[in-house]
Batch of 2 targets.
Target 1
Amino acid sequence: MPDINNRTNQSIVAGSLGAVSKKNNSSIAMGFMGVKVLVMVDVSGSMMDRDTGDGSSRYEVAVKQLELLQAENPGEVAVCCFSNGAQFCPGGVPLMLSGTTDMVAALRMMLMADNTGIRLILISDGEPDDDEKTIALARKFKSKIDTVFVGSESGRGRSFLKELSAATGGISITTEVNQLGKLSDNITRLIAA
């Protein structure tokens, strides 16, 4: 597997929308029609913390787990990432952007899949830049937003993600930082729920 820290916007992992579209000689837009889940991944600066138990950063472990998820569900997982803004990652690799945790930008991007039957999952380890605006926007969703907390137990991040998912009727899962290697299992559980 290539070095995660050397990934670029051109990186394509097996099973990603980019890989499936290339294999089928079709557009990403056509590939999006088969998507069952949109995963929005926090790539703020704190995701570079190396507290996962094996010396890897939270980001590195999340990328590996998303690769497994996409390989097991080819063409069914759309990956997006957010920090100061949000962006779609057709190659299936969330880019490490650093910066802050603008969940409002993340939710605005997720709105494109609202009420379409696509499962919405937000993975984060931190607190949003603006709690009130984030919850206000979440309440406008018709779809449920499931959350996966992957941070440290200090701070308000865990309780905020529970509040966010509750605002939409979604499910909130907590993954201890040293258990990030089971992230794809947790997402698979959410997809099956």
Note: The first helix runs from residue 17 to 23.
Target 2
Amino acid sequence: HRSLMAPYLLQWESMREAKRRGYRHYDLGGVAVNTGKKAAWAGITRFKQGFGGKLHEFGKTYDVVFKGWLYQLYSARQKLKSML
């Protein structure tokens, strides 16, 4: 049922609730700006920009690792995935 566009309604209602509670800002999260992942993030970026608003850059993100061996496994999987 993609035609119902549920993600739009969900975000819109979340913004309305935030406004009702007195919040002045609503963060939709990350978009592709100057990264190598522009193609992969194109749809997400377009969706978020469709709400208007302003783009703020907060700097880089970092991973906080709690289980080193599991993170190494994850990193290896990501490298393999990028080669395909």
Note: The helical segments are 6-20, 38-49, 68-83.
